[in-house]
Amino acid sequence: MLEVAGDRVMAFIEKLLASSEHFYRWLVKIHPKEFRAEYETEMVQNFRDLCRERLDHLSATRMVGLWGHAFLDLAASAAIEHIRRRKSMNTLDQDLRWDLRYGVQMFCKHFLWLLKYTSLALIGGAVAIVLAAWIWSGVRIWQKEKPVQQAWAEMTGKTPEGYFESVLQQFPKSGMNETARQLEDLTTRLGIFNPMPNRSYDGQRKNFVGPFDTLDAPVHVVSQSRKPTDDIDEAPAKLQDYLKNRRADLDALYSLLQRSGMPRWETDIALLSRAPIPALFYHRQLQGLIALDILERTRKGETAAAQAAFEVSWKINQSLRERPELLSQMIALSVLELQMGALRKMKHVPDMWQKRIALAAWQESFWRAMELDAVVLSRDMTDTVTPVRSARWFDLLINSPLGRPLRRLAGTEMLEVSHEALFLIRNNSFCALSPQLAADRLEASRSSWSMGTQFAYTSYLRAWSRMMEAMTRLELTAKILQAKEARNSSTTPGWPNQLAEMKSLVCPEAQWVHEITSDGRIKLQCLNLPEWLRKEFPQSVPLTYSLKAKS
Amino acid sequence: MRQAKRDPEDLLPLSLSVFHILVSLADQERHGYGIMKETAARTDGKVRLGPGILYGNIKRLIEDGLIEASQERPDPELDDERRRYYRLTQFGQRVVVAETRRLASLIGMARSKRLLRDLKFAGSRG
What we know:
Chain A is mainly alpha-helical.
């Protein structure tokens, strides 16, 4: 009986022990995970030992005391471990979780406080960046400005400032002359007027009118100029009708230019990039129309009238060539293509005209225009009086006193890379050095922070390669005129055995050759032209022309 | 190496629980339950370390290099293999000695003020 009672007591004690241990294990879970992983087993084991000790005495009071102590102990140790864990978070995951939670709480509780300090931080960061840029620009200017100006002076004989002043003296601010005004009136009547951009005076026609969508004289002229013989196709009916219907206006235009001096359009270099510039479409369409008229008159055998028209064309284009800015030179080159196409087809050309197409003069004016363009672009960046309007949101900084060093540095670097490009062009046989190779060389040396510097040298290399292409066609025309002169001055039928001066002045490596073909024609050809020229301008190269012999 | 440069004084005064844990381990290695029992016995049950407080302190004492878990078992036949034994490190030894000296100096000060007469009496009675 006693044994049975003893077994029941032991079973009760074991059950109580297991329940206490189970409950204690459950309570231990309020501790941090890392702590439990390390000590949970030992804690439960210790508690079990303590329980067993109490139960051995079969004391209910002691068990209650043990549990009371266990509750306090667990509550205190769990609180301490949680606080310590939070303080000693050292893993990235914990840090992030803690920071994010803290951040969200702070954001919700202290939105305005955060807004204030976030704004302050952003403003502080922006100020730091601007100050850093300001200091950096100052140091770079100190390093670069003088050497760049010296290099420029070595190339041109003047400092950039002196260079600009000398051009200003040579081309003072001037308005449009009467010839140019009347020319605009007549071209308006011809339907091909387009005003010059950035006009510096009021009262000018603002609206563009032109028949370009239905009538494009330059296209026909260019197609004829690329035919390698004196043959001229009849112009399309639409163009012939146009010439017939507008004859009176066209003759009035010729008459104006024959009795007047050269047309002069407004110039104001001091305005830098905002200076008035000629309108490309207007000049190309007008000159295309005159070239069309020359071709038609030549085709019909009206040589004197064709020569008169050519004189007018030359006078207008000469006015552009005498302007200092690069764009005028580019337009003049574009017109030159039309003029040369018409000139080489003419049967008789006065001797003096050959001198007009002297290569060196074209190259020199083009060269000067590029120099001025480099100085103008540099001054445009450096000029802190006139605000920059092109960079949108960046304007605020770049136009502020803090932006001045940046602009000055940009101007200096623009001049630096322009100088390198122009120096490269002038001191190399450009025929041998392709624009791409030159661009690669300049790209390697330029500053990477400024986009403007890339614009500067690529535009000069492209302009110069177009110039070279135009000069090869000019030289072809010169050789054709030379051959025609030799043919016309010959007292005997056929061709003279030798033609003088067949060297190429454009490319020293190239050579002009001629051969008499079996049908008695002479074929002119330029050999050894550079590969890059063939690739860039496949329609112009190879340069050949075939002329009939004197009958 | 790092411990040699540390000054035990920097950790003083020790909390009561920590002091008793270190004193328990001063003469021999013990497991957690052994520490609890020894402390309770030594203090006539006046200081009872619960498992939570005990292992929380053990954790930090190990981190601070005052004690370490022992790889050996003093008497494996008599013991549960799952229990871990702890022992004082050299630095822990120096810390507990330093704390004892600090307490002794306090007692010296109290004695100089003749404050220990009653305590002696109380001690002798207990």
